[in-house]
Amino acid sequence: MENIKIIPFNIMMLSTLADMVRDAWHLEKSIKNKFLLKMACTAYSAHIISKSNYIYFLKSGSNIVSFLAARKENKHIYLRYFYLLICFTAVFFMLFFKYGRSLLKYQLGYNKMLEDLYKKADKKYDAEMVLFITYTKHQNKGYGKNLVEKFNMDMKKENIKTIYLFTDNYCDYEMYERAGCRRVCDMGKEFLLTDDLFYQEIYLYEYEIK
Length: 210
Fold this sequence. Notes:
This is GNAT family N-acetyltransferase. Helices cover 42% and strands 29% of the residues. The chain is α+β, with helices and mostly antiparallel strands. Helix 1 crosses helix 2 (34-50) and helix 2 runs antiparallel to helix 3.
């Protein structure tokens, strides 16, 4: 794999992350309003950045292809409140749309499930992998694997050994199993997005850096 490198995050890259979020979950299919789509992706991306101590963008040539963010408790988060402000600003604009309000209600329910699932696991970990995504057109090319290897090396240097992460039935959770992660527990619930009722399962996985 040629000409790949990890690049540091800056505020200008928030829009890139928002586009990666849109691409990963094909959100343009469910959120038809372009402004609402932009606000939803921006709010989620800013929230991720606001709680992450470790942020990685993998660049191949001139293209950013993969992203990974992780969090360790009691470690300083650079400009945390600045990104929370961006998140809350985007959320404010989402409130003007019926579907936006429904999305926010869903996200609150989803976050509550994450908290309950962590309690259900009843284990302590050194760090959390908050988000790991690769542009769909660059998947299955080894970029994600390369990024995780870099992340694992950095965690090992900081004596971080146990990692946990959340994923769900709308993601390729099987890739974590192929990578050696172990499912600890799961939880399911029905959600309503405007008039659409759907069932969501969330899984907590763990792995150890050796």
